[in-house]
Amino acid sequence: MNFQCDKCGICCKLLKGIPQLAAFDRGDGVCIHLKDNLCSIYESRPDICNVEKMYVFFKEQMSEEEYLQLMSNSCKVLKQAAEDR
């Protein structure tokens, strides 16, 4: 699996409302580990932040290709939401 992340950092700036990532929120919805738009704990990031590892929860419902397309579409939605702010 190869998810094409463009390292925009948007997903790391929208943590509010994600209970699994509450401990990583610096108080304004931005991850405490986001440095210069990159994850400073990338190799040990939580599974919820890892597209490849999260597929295990969806593989019974969709193919890998469908999942990657869903993740790509989700990125587009997040980027649009960030622009609309």
Mind sketching the topology for me?
Layout lengths: L33 E2 L2 E2 L11 H4 L9 H21 L1
Antiparallel strand pairs: 1-2
Describe this structure in words.
- This protein is mainly alpha-helical and 85 residues long.
- It has helices at 51-54, 64-84, and strands at 34-35, 38-39.
- It starts with 33 loop residues before the first strand and ends with a helix.
- The mean pLDDT is 92.
| Alpha plus pi helix count | 2
Given the C-alpha coordinates, what overall shape results? globular
Number of strands: 2
Largest sheet features: 2 strands, antiparallel
Would you tell me the overall average pLDDT?
A: 92
Succession of helices and strands = EEHH
Residue windows where pLDDT falls under 50 for at least 5 positions: none
Radius of gyration over alpha carbons?
A: 13 Å
Percent range of helical residues: 25-40%
Largest beta sheet: strand ordering: 1-2
Distance between the termini: 32 Å
Structural class: mainly alpha
The fraction of residues assigned to DSSP E strands is under 5%
